C-alpha cells in the first residue's frame, strides 16, 4: 500500500486496504492474527462477564491457535459484550479452514476501521 501513495481520497485508500487484505496469504494472515487481542470489555462489565469471555476465548484459541477477532464498528457499545460472546460461541463450531476465512474478513474490516479512525484523528 505504501508503494502506491499518495491516495487521492479516503475511499481510494480504503479500497487499497481491502485489496491488500484480500491478497494476504496463509503466513501473512497468521502473522496478522498473532498481533490481535480480545476486544476490551466495557468498564462496567461484571465479573461473570469477564469469566465467560475469558473461558470462551481460551476455547477459541485452543481450537484455532489465534486470538478471536471481530469488528464491532456497527455494534452499539451496550451490546458489544453480547455480540462478542455470541460470535465466539457460534464460530467455535466452524471448521478451522472456514474460520480462517471468517477471521480474515473480520481482520480486513478491523484494518479499514482502524485506518479510517487514524486518518480522522489526523484530520481533526
From TrEMBL:
What region holds the Oxo-4-hydroxy-4-carboxy-5-ureidoimidazoline decarboxylase domain? 49-116
What Pfam families does the record point to?
Answer: OHCU_decarbox (PF09349)
The portions of this protein that span the membrane are: none
Q: Which UniProt keywords apply?
A: Purine metabolism
- Specify the domain of life of the species encoding this protein: Bacteria
Extract the InterPro entries matched here: OHCU_decarboxylase (IPR018020), OHCU_decarboxylase_sf (IPR036778)
SUPFAM superfamilies in alphabetical order: UraD-Like (SSF158694)
Per its record, how is this protein called by name?
A: Oxo-4-hydroxy-4-carboxy-5-ureidoimidazoline decarboxylase domain-containing protein
- What is the species of this protein? Streptomyces asoensis
